[in-house]
Amino acid sequence: MADGSYLQLDDVVVTQRHLPDREPVTIAGVVTQVRARHEGAQFDSDVFAIAEGTLPAVVQEAAEITTTRVDPELYVPPAPGAIVHRASGEARDAALHFDRMERRIPMGTGRDGVPVFLNADFLDGTRGAHVSISGISGVATKTSFATFLLYSVFRSGALGADGANARALIFNVKGEDLLFLDHPNTKLDEATRAGYKLLELPATPFSDVRVYAPPRAGDSSGAPDVSSRLTGVDTFYWTLEEFASLRLLPYVFADADDERQQYTMVVHSVTAHLHRYSVPAEGGISIDGKRLGSYGDLVDHIVEQLTDDETRSTWAGSAVNMGTVNAFARRLIGSKRDLARLIRGDLAQRRPHQIKTAESAQVTVVDLHNLPDRAQRFVVGVTLKTEFEEKEKAGTGRPLLFVVLDELNKYAPREGTSPIKEVLLDIAERGRSLGVILIGAQQTASEVERRIVTNSAIRVVGRLDPAEAARPEYGFLPPAMRQRALLARPGTMFVNQPDIPVPLCVEFPFPAWATRKSESGPPPSDTMKSIVQGADPFAVVGSSDDDIPF
Amino acid sequence: MRVFVEPWDPSYGASFEGGGSGDGPASTSSAQIDTDVEVPAAEWAPIDVSDSVQPPDVVYLVDGVRRIDAGLSTAEDDGTSYAGLAASFAAGVVRCDLGRGVAELVTAKVGRGLFTASPSMEDLLAGPVRYEVHRIEGPGEASKLPVAVQRPLTALEILISSEARAHGPEGYDLLVVDGPLRARRQLPRTIGFIKTQEKLYLPAVLNLVVTRLTAGQRTPVFHLGTAWGGWTWYLRLPGGSSAPWSGIVRVECSPDLSPEMAIELADLSQATLPRFASSAYKDPRAPQNLVPIAGLERRLRGMLGDSRLLHRALTKATVRSR
User: Fold this and answer.
1) Quick one: where's region Disordered (chain B) (predicted)?
2) In terms of residue numbers, what domain contains A318?
């Protein structure tokens, strides 16, 4: 670099190559590596002689550029010694292919402080779908980026009516971070507001959010089990009748190692038996003439029937040995503690209690953080299955449904199979045409089912673990960027999208919505109504400013 | 007339230095000397650096490098043949500003010359590079040609030495020329720095004073009566081995100066040069090859250009001219 000029990582540069017989070729690229050294120094200790003023040396900076675009597509090298300019405005847009994006979703700013965009075609299923976000938990800000991306989809207007009508289903796995999406953030400062303005986004919380939480354990009224958010939270549960008729029993056995066991066939025959012979009875079910009012009762009844020699064959089929039945029974009994609060026979059936994004708000948050592992798997599995089946039935790709799921490595591990993994694979492979977009986050992409990662058009990386960064799943990162990912600060992500040959380094703004109780402003007016009633019968879906109607 | 580039020879592309590293003077000189300039010869003893001497903040160091790019031979129209030498040479000035801690290349110039006795040889254009003809008197044997390169190089060194000084307004500086002063003696506040001692100038008794010097000490100034002589003194640089002549350099200044001025320069050199001494593991010619000079030579060699490229260009140019 010439005296007095400098380049930093991620700067966009452009140069021209003049050719004898045609128009000049514009070659653009991104700085992926910078270095400075003393030219004239042979030994490291020569720096002392240089600093002392006895050895003549020149400080020389150099930058390595990765080409992003050659326009027109005549692949000639740039001439050595050609002058390179830092690109701005249209030249920068062209270098990063933003000019070819018909619909662009702002996803933050580059290191140069200018907005960076995501091609909507690769998000909404037009040419690709699904997002895979990897990074160390805590510092990689995976969930924050996922929510910011959703916010940008809803508010930027890039997707037109699709964006406004799109729904989001967010599973809150850790803490109560995502329960305040509709509360303004009191820590929002002018600089952050300016950041939002630069991206042409309003700095407001999500406008239409519905939060679902599981019922409090041991509480017969079915009040939601949340501690910090007190208003606008609905309880979700399944009635015993739904459990039987919707064949939900396999989702109780959703561990990856469950599938390898012999008792899978027992699971399926019991599921079928329940489906065929159970009769709804005031919230509970009645089977074999016996009324069952709780999940515990149901488990006890099934175990009793299976251990009884006379009834075993009607429940489990004839060719099942006792060891297998016992293994099944042991696990079923083990699930009682985890699932009793979710599968109920004592709560009103008509009361809305199911998670259905189509009837819910724009953003549906399902709080799982208080649930034990088995219950989390059950909720995620059943909810995703239900939603996906709804979409399949509707047969149209609109409205779009974004599913945000953290710890994807738990639900769709690389090894083994489970009902949840089947659903997630279905979404990854067919969701694109059905308008179901998976935004999956995980600490380690290497431990997630490969077909899910490869089906993700957009790959995002935050701070990575050094051993993880060396794995082939991150092959899209150039070596220098891989090194940088080890040091990435919270709020910095590397985003790879199919039509830009280099991942872009993105800094996204601090959330305009509260991420914890301490920074949450006053709740939006329409969440107050849930103090009065869990679901407002007069509410128009998607309306936001209606006050309490009575 | 036709010109031919000699086939490749390992010595082409190598730069050459005058003299070897040398453990000590090999022969005795018969030059007239006057050893009573600073102190009477009988009282000669090592002189320590004086506390009252204020070393200059700015020191200029001048050096040049030479390289043979190709050996040529000509076929004259009358059937005779002459040897020729295409050489590149460069000279530069480093300005060491010890006050600010900056050493920088002030000026550097590259010259290329075609050294031959052939009367019909003209400038040779090899690619973008022009080799200017320097006609040699006499028969011009190939073995005499490398020495001839020194003359234009010295001229170049004088030119850039005065140029470098012209920029700086500072009055209190010192110019160190690598090698004997010779034709550069008219430059003000200038000392010549002779790295290798080939001849013994002093009588045996006084040579004992030289070998007794410890690092940083110098001998008294004495006068050398040779054609290029002048005021001169020995100085031992730090960092040498314990061999008697290791680290000994001879410094000289113009004979046109008064003895007092020569002694002042001797004091200045004693306060300045030891700082620049190089260390053995970095430079085989340590400590005499001063750090700024070594750095300068590396830069200058870089500026000479790629020798293989020039050899090719010369070959092409001569082939085309036939």
Assistant:
1) 1-32
2) 238-344
